[in-house]
Each structure stands twice: as structure tokens, then as C-alpha cells.
Amino acid sequence: MQSPHSLDWPAITQSLDDSGCAHIPQLLSPAECTALAGLYPNTALFRSRVVMERYSFGRGEYQYFHYPLPDPVAQLRSGIYPHLVPVANRWNEAMGIAVRYPAEHADFLQRCHTAGQLRPTPLLLQYGPGDYNCLHQDLYGEHVFPLQLAVLLSEPGRDFSGGEFVLTEQRPRMQSRPEVVPLRQGDAVLFAVHHRPVQGTRGSYRVQLRHGVSRVRTGQRHTLGVIFHDAQ
């Protein structure tokens, strides 16, 4: 795993400001990806399993980890969060949102837990042929951190085909703008959970974002999702 502190945060920040997402190549090694994907059958590690078709979320399934999180997941969550806090606070200020986020993830989790958001949200997702994830937002309660992370654990072209990560942005009085982020095994994408500010001629305004996964055509695709707020 690359140390979160060694990443090119000025470039990541610029990409987040420009497009609402940032690509991080090779955040995890192939061996780490294989090990994490291999946890999926171990139901003892997870608090719940969701079959997406039952809820019209798409097709495929995912499982939320319970506490304590596996070490690599916990390290990513606590290590990346502090680097995102300046972006999150600056975005909220630009959008006229009063909420500010503490410097350390443990302090933000305490805020979530005090409000009754006690359930961990990091998850593993599993897709097979024909599976997909509808465009959505991972909100889960009153306290929402405005950025999240996804890491592709499978290798396109070898383990699966199709299954592209898709982000859409809806600006006022305009049609949605799609963005496809090409990922290889171990690559991560940071992206806006809900909304972000865009600078217009009359100041900043909010745009709404949603994310999903296009249809997997062949094989099996695993993804790690790291959401920084907990759920009710």
C-alpha cells in the first residue's frame, strides 16, 4: 500500500476541484487487492449483505464490514481522511454550508456516533456477468463526509470486462455531464459523495453528483469502498 502521506495531494486536490474526482494509480498492490477480494466469502467479517436487485439498486451484491475493520481498510480510512479535510471544509465554505470537519478521523467518527450513526460503512462489492450499480449517493445519515474512495481489486481484461466506474454531475438548468474513470487493479478514485462547488460568473454554486458502475460483461469484479462517515 502506498502511504497516504506520500501521495501527490496538490494534484489530487486540483483534480477534485476541477472535476469532482481524482484518480490515484496503484494505491494497493496486486497482492493486497487479491487478499482483500478474498475476504468476501468470510461472512464473519461483515455486518450485513445487500443483494442490489432486491432494492432496485442494480444487480450484484455488497457487504459492509463490521468493526474492527481489517487493517488495510482501517489504515486507508484514517490515513486519507486528514488530507481531504481541507478540501471538504473549503467546499462547504464555498457552498454556504456551516459544517466543518475535524482534522482527525477519530474525532469525526465520534461526531457520527454521538448522533446515532454507529454502523461502519466500508464495504466490498462483488459483480458478475450482467451486474451493474445504479447511479446513487452514499449518504446514510445526518453527518456526511463529502468525499469517498473506491479501489478496484480486480484486473480489467483479465478478471472481467465492462464494469466501468461512472460519475455524473448535474449542473443547474443543464443536462448531466458523465465521466468514466478508467481504473486498473489497485487503482483508486476519490470522488464527491453528494455535491461540490463550481465557480461561475456570479460566484460559486452547487452541482449534484452521483456514481455507479456500468454493466459487467464477463467475469467477476470486486471493489473496496471506503466511506468516511458511519451509518444510522
Percent helix range: 10-25%
> What's the CATH superfamily, by name?
q2cbj1_9rhob like domain
Number of strands: 15
Number of domains: 1
Span of the ends, CA to CA: 30 Å
Organism: Rhodoferax ferrireducens
Domain Fe2OG dioxygenase: 118-231
Family: Belongs to the iron/ascorbate-dependent oxidoreductase family.
InterPro entries: DUF2086, Oxoglu/Fe-dep_dioxygenase_dom
Briefly say what this structure is.
The protein is an alpha+beta fold. It is built from four helices and 15 strands.
Could you please describe the fold and organization of this structure?
The protein is an alpha+beta fold and 232 residues long. The strands form 3 sheets. Strands 1-11-7-15-5-4-2 form a 7-stranded antiparallel sheet. Strands 3, 6, 9, 10, 12 and 13 form a 6-stranded antiparallel sheet that branches. Strands 8-14 form a two-stranded antiparallel sheet. It has a single domain (4-227), classed as Sandwich (Jelly Rolls), CATH 2.60.120.620. It contains 4 helices and 15 strands.
